[in-house]
Amino acid sequence: MAKGIIIREAHFPGKAPIEAYGNGGFRFADMSHRGSLLVLPSGIHGWEPADPLALKASDFDKLFAEAGKVEILLVGMGKDLRPLPAALRAALKEAGISADPMSTGAAVRTYNVLLAEDRAVAAALIAVD
Protein backbone atom coordinates (compact mmCIF):
# COMPACT_ATOMS: atom_id res chain seq x y z
CA MET A 1 0.00 0.00 0.00
CA ALA A 2 1.62 3.22 -1.17
CA LYS A 3 1.53 6.31 0.97
CA GLY A 4 1.07 9.59 -0.85
CA ILE A 5 0.93 13.20 0.06
CA ILE A 6 -2.31 14.24 1.68
CA ILE A 7 -3.44 17.68 0.58
CA ARG A 8 -5.71 19.39 3.06
CA GLU A 9 -7.77 22.50 2.58
CA ALA A 10 -5.78 25.55 3.72
CA HIS A 11 -7.14 26.81 7.06
CA PHE A 12 -5.69 28.85 9.93
CA PRO A 13 -8.00 28.49 12.98
CA GLY A 14 -8.00 31.96 14.42
CA LYS A 15 -8.00 35.69 13.77
CA ALA A 16 -4.83 37.34 12.54
CA PRO A 17 -3.97 40.57 10.77
CA ILE A 18 -2.78 40.27 7.18
CA GLU A 19 0.92 41.19 7.30
CA ALA A 20 1.59 41.44 3.55
CA TYR A 21 -0.01 40.79 0.18
CA GLY A 22 1.19 40.54 -3.42
CA ASN A 23 3.08 38.05 -5.58
CA GLY A 24 -0.12 36.02 -5.85
CA GLY A 25 -0.63 35.49 -2.13
CA PHE A 26 -0.68 36.74 1.46
CA ARG A 27 1.33 36.57 4.70
CA PHE A 28 -0.30 36.28 8.14
CA ALA A 29 0.53 34.67 11.49
CA ASP A 30 4.14 34.07 10.37
CA MET A 31 2.87 31.96 7.46
CA SER A 32 2.37 32.54 3.78
CA HIS A 33 -0.44 31.42 1.51
CA ARG A 34 -0.43 31.39 -2.28
CA GLY A 35 -3.83 32.23 -3.72
CA SER A 36 -6.89 34.06 -2.46
CA LEU A 37 -8.26 34.08 1.10
CA LEU A 38 -11.62 34.06 2.86
CA VAL A 39 -11.04 35.57 6.31
CA LEU A 40 -13.84 34.68 8.75
CA PRO A 41 -14.37 34.74 12.53
CA SER A 42 -13.65 30.98 12.54
CA GLY A 43 -10.29 31.46 10.85
CA ILE A 44 -8.52 32.14 7.59
CA HIS A 45 -9.38 29.83 4.72
CA GLY A 46 -7.83 29.31 1.30
CA TRP A 47 -10.44 30.57 -1.19
CA GLU A 48 -10.57 30.20 -4.93
CA PRO A 49 -13.79 31.52 -6.45
CA ALA A 50 -14.61 29.88 -9.78
CA ASP A 51 -14.46 33.25 -11.55
CA PRO A 52 -13.05 36.20 -9.59
CA LEU A 53 -14.61 38.55 -12.14
CA ALA A 54 -18.10 37.09 -11.57
CA LEU A 55 -18.48 36.26 -7.87
CA LYS A 56 -21.57 34.26 -6.89
CA ALA A 57 -23.31 33.63 -3.58
CA SER A 58 -22.05 30.02 -3.65
CA ASP A 59 -18.47 31.37 -3.49
CA PHE A 60 -19.39 32.58 0.02
CA ASP A 61 -20.98 29.45 1.51
CA LYS A 62 -18.53 29.44 4.44
CA LEU A 63 -19.33 33.08 5.15
CA PHE A 64 -23.08 32.44 5.13
CA ALA A 65 -22.56 29.62 7.64
CA GLU A 66 -21.16 32.26 10.04
CA ALA A 67 -23.53 35.08 9.06
CA GLY A 68 -24.59 35.85 12.64
CA LYS A 69 -20.98 36.60 13.57
CA VAL A 70 -20.25 38.98 10.66
CA GLU A 71 -21.57 42.51 10.15
CA ILE A 72 -19.11 43.78 7.54
CA LEU A 73 -17.60 41.94 4.57
CA LEU A 74 -14.67 43.60 2.83
CA VAL A 75 -14.25 42.25 -0.69
CA GLY A 76 -10.79 42.74 -2.15
CA MET A 77 -11.55 42.61 -5.87
CA GLY A 78 -7.92 42.46 -7.05
CA LYS A 79 -6.03 45.48 -8.32
CA ASP A 80 -9.14 47.36 -9.38
CA LEU A 81 -12.46 48.15 -7.77
CA ARG A 82 -15.36 46.30 -9.40
CA PRO A 83 -18.97 46.27 -8.26
CA LEU A 84 -20.40 43.14 -6.69
CA PRO A 85 -22.99 41.33 -8.83
CA ALA A 86 -26.56 42.27 -7.87
CA ALA A 87 -27.52 38.69 -6.89
CA LEU A 88 -24.55 38.46 -4.52
CA ARG A 89 -25.32 41.85 -2.96
CA ALA A 90 -28.93 40.73 -2.40
CA ALA A 91 -27.86 37.45 -0.77
CA LEU A 92 -25.45 39.26 1.55
CA LYS A 93 -28.08 41.86 2.48
CA GLU A 94 -30.58 39.10 3.24
CA ALA A 95 -28.00 37.54 5.58
CA GLY A 96 -27.56 40.88 7.36
CA ILE A 97 -24.04 41.46 6.03
CA SER A 98 -22.92 44.82 4.69
CA ALA A 99 -20.50 44.28 1.78
CA ASP A 100 -17.87 46.79 0.68
CA PRO A 101 -16.00 46.00 -2.55
CA MET A 102 -12.60 47.68 -2.96
CA SER A 103 -9.13 46.89 -4.24
CA THR A 104 -7.39 44.05 -2.41
CA GLY A 105 -4.81 46.44 -0.94
CA ALA A 106 -7.51 48.71 0.50
CA ALA A 107 -9.42 45.66 1.82
CA VAL A 108 -6.32 44.34 3.63
CA ARG A 109 -5.65 47.72 5.26
CA THR A 110 -9.28 48.22 6.27
CA TYR A 111 -9.57 44.64 7.58
CA ASN A 112 -6.54 45.11 9.82
CA VAL A 113 -7.98 48.34 11.30
CA LEU A 114 -11.42 46.81 11.93
CA LEU A 115 -9.85 43.63 13.38
CA ALA A 116 -7.80 45.77 15.80
CA GLU A 117 -11.05 47.48 16.83
CA ASP A 118 -12.55 44.02 17.51
CA ARG A 119 -15.31 44.59 14.96
CA ALA A 120 -17.42 41.76 13.46
CA VAL A 121 -15.54 41.82 10.15
CA ALA A 122 -14.78 39.28 7.44
CA ALA A 123 -12.81 39.65 4.22
CA ALA A 124 -12.78 37.96 0.85
CA LEU A 125 -9.40 38.76 -0.68
CA ILE A 126 -8.55 38.01 -4.31
CA ALA A 127 -4.78 37.59 -4.64
CA VAL A 128 -2.82 40.11 -6.71
CA ASP A 129 0.60 39.84 -8.33
TrEMBL record:
Coiled coil: none annotated. InterPro entries: MTH938-like_sf, NDUFAF3/AAMDC. CDD domains: Mth938-like (cd00248). PANTHER family: NADH DEHYDROGENASE [UBIQUINONE] 1 ALPHA SUBCOMPLEX ASSEMBLY FACTOR 3 (PTHR21192:SF2), NUCLEAR PROTEIN E3-3 (PTHR21192). This is Mth938-like domain-containing protein. It comes from Mesorhizobium atlanticum.
